[in-house]
Amino acid sequence: MMNQANTETIPVDLQALTAWMDDIGLERGPLSNLQLLAGGTQNILLRFDRGDREFVLRRPPLHLRKNSNETMKREARILEALSATDVPHPRFIAGCDDEAVLGACFYLMAPVEGFNPANGLPQLHASDPAIRARMGYSYIEGMAALGAVDYKAVGLEGFGKPDGFLQRQTGRWMSQLEGYAAFDEWTGFQELPDVERIVSWLEDNLPQDFTSGIFHGDCHLANTIFAPDSPELVAFVDWELATIGDPLIDLGWVMATWADEHTPVVGDIEPWDGFPSLNELIAHYDRHSTRSLDAVAWYGVLACFKLGTLLEGTHARASAGKAPKETGDHLHAMTISLFNRAHRLIAKN
């Protein structure tokens, strides 16, 4: 969503931005056609023109969180590293690590023309189930392409900690779930479907090895942009959770968030008929990746457990009056649904 903005309402020092662009030789002339982009995060996104070129500035919110600048630098680094690849992503232009320029680290990227399916499907995509089928397959092909990138060759060595990555996952998320006991009114594990069985299964079925690679970390459909005139994926967006580990983590995220016979798709995308089934997506990933999917259920179970744990945090805070009760109840129901999905995956394996 784009809002035409006047300079008084833009939370960016345009004079400082112009001077910085002058210093690094990025076009000349005034900034024009300024538009604030509304997204799913609190980060500031500003689209503008300068010279004959279009830009999007991304920076943290005005009230910085503890890791805001580090997160922004990581995003810039991974987008720059992906520039020479065929992975669908916003094209990196330049970054600034000097917090004095705009009060925080920031970067410039090229605009991505298209739509986010979570915000509604255009007529072309809404009218044809075959178009929606291809959207699903294009989404998976982009994910497989990301997992195939040699992260060392593109300069991302040291970007994550792949050694022992899978071994750390179950304990990390179990510790977070247990930590909600700090909220006195949280109902704890009594309403959650057999957490111990999920954790035991994950520990007993841990994949023995994997080839390290890049994963996005939050690549559900709400973090995608599709072409306005075709079913092709043009970009994964919001790269703040990307790191180096096991790229099948991303496929597991699809297994947790994709609609099945028991639960609707996360984000309520309509119409949904025509989109491939989860099994069809997994088979398509297998055709476009050299990675073994022998243990694919493990990644789905982990994703259900991780996402459910994250959502349950809001319920725990709501129980203590630190978040809206209605929101907490809704997310608690989603956690239960996700844990039940984990149990169904376990039962099939």
SSE layout and pairings?
Layout: E1 2-4, H1 14-24, E2 32-37, E3 44-50, E4 53-59, H2 68-81, E5 92-96, H3 99-102, E6 106-109, H4 123-126, H5 129-148, H6 165-179, H7 195-204, E7 213-215, E8 224-226, E9 233-236, E10 243-245, H8 248-257, H9 278-287, H10 296-319, H11 325-347
Antiparallel strand pairs: 1-2, 2-3, 3-4, 4-6, 5-6, 7-10, 8-9
Helix pairs in contact: 5-9, 6-10, 7-11, 8-10, 10-11
Would you mind describing this structure in some detail?
The protein is of the alpha+beta class. It has helices at 14-24, 68-81, 99-102, 123-126, 129-148, 165-179, 195-204, 248-257, 278-287, 296-319, 325-347; strands spanning 2-4, 32-37, 44-50, 53-59, 92-96, 106-109, 213-215, 224-226, 233-236, 243-245. Helix 5 (129-148) crosses helix 9, helix 6 (165-179) packs parallel to helix 10 (296-319) and helix 10 packs antiparallel against helix 11 (325-347). The longest helix has 24 residues, at 296-319. The strands form three sheets. The chain has a six-stranded antiparallel sheet.
